[in-house]
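Input record (one chain):
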Amino acid sequence: MEPVDIYRRSFYDTRVPTVNSQFMWRYVENNEGLLDAAVEPPNTGLVLKSPRMLMLAFFGYWMPAGDNILVTFRKNGHQSRASRR
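The corresponding structure, as predicted from the sequence alone:
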């Protein structure tokens, strides 16, 4: 196997507002640190009243934490079962 691509950010980071790891973790922290907050109906008041949360909602993608990495691999050529052992 050989690495094809190395992605140095969370798999959750997108350019869609609020769909980035920086926003998600700050949102969870501001909801008593309960991970359930990420899957419950949103607390829009919390986001709209906080300049930092609004900034992270829209620009968090461009501020990766740098603590995640995703690597994609590809098999090298066609190998027989005997040569893989």
